[in-house]
C-alpha cells in the first residue's frame, strides 16, 4: 500500500480542465504536459501496480497505446479505492478512470464513458464437481446455497434480483477471498466475472469455475461491458479515444493487448456506451 501511495503521489501536478470551448480542451492540455493521470483501483487484472512497482492491467496497458497515438507519451497511476474513482475523477484528482469499470445507467449520470473495450459474463466458483448443481442465480436461490461475492460487485444486485436476500450474502474483498471461502466450506458459491473466476481457480485442487452465463436484469439476459470514464465536459477527449479504440478493435490489436490478462475472443465486443447507458 505504501508503494501504491508513493506512485500515486509522484508528479501529481494537475492539468486544468476548464475550457470555454464545447467538448473541453483536456486533450490539448494533456499533449502539452506529455502525461495523463489514470485513476486505478488496484484490481487484478483490470488496473494495478505489479510486484516490480510498475503500472499494468488491461486498462492501463490499453491506455498507454491509445494515449500515445493521441500524442500523450506517458501515463501516471493514481491509485484509489474503487468507490472513489468517479468522485476522484470529477474532483480532478486524475484525468481518466482506467479500471475496467462497468458501464451502467447510474454511472452514466455522473461521467461519460468510452465504448467498452471488453464485455463480460458472470461465473461461479464452486467446489470440484459442483455438488449442488449451481449454474445461475436462480439455482442459488432455489437450492438455498450459501452465497458470497465481492465488495461493490454488480453480482450483489444480480443475486438480489433473482430473489436472494441481500443481508444473507457474505461480502468478501475479492475473488481470492471468495475462492478461500468456497474451499473452506464457509459458502457454497462465490459469484464474480467469468474472467476473474476462471483465472483464480487455475491452481485450486478443491474448487472450479462454472460455465459463463448472462445474469437476468428485469427478466432479460444482461451482458456487462467495461470502459474508460471521463468527466462529462470532456467529450472531445472521449471521442478521440473512441476513434483509436475502434481502430484497435478492427485490426485485432485490442485482443493482443488484453490477452496477457486472461481475456479471450469471447470478451471482445461491439457494445456501445450508449447501449449500456440505457439509450
From TrEMBL:
<dbReference type="InterPro" id="IPR014337">
    <property type="entry name" value="Ectoine_EhuB"/>
</dbReference>
<dbReference type="Pfam" id="PF00497">
    <property type="entry name" value="SBP_bac_3"/>
</dbReference>
<keyword id="KW-0732">Signal</keyword>
<protein>
    <submittedName>
        <fullName>Ectoine/hydroxyectoine ABC transporter substrate-binding protein EhuB</fullName>
    </submittedName>
</protein>
<feature type="domain" description="Solute-binding protein family 3/N-terminal">
    <location>
        <begin position="35"/>
        <end position="265"/>
    </location>
</feature>
<dbReference type="InterPro" id="IPR001638">
    <property type="entry name" value="Solute-binding_3/MltF_N"/>
</dbReference>
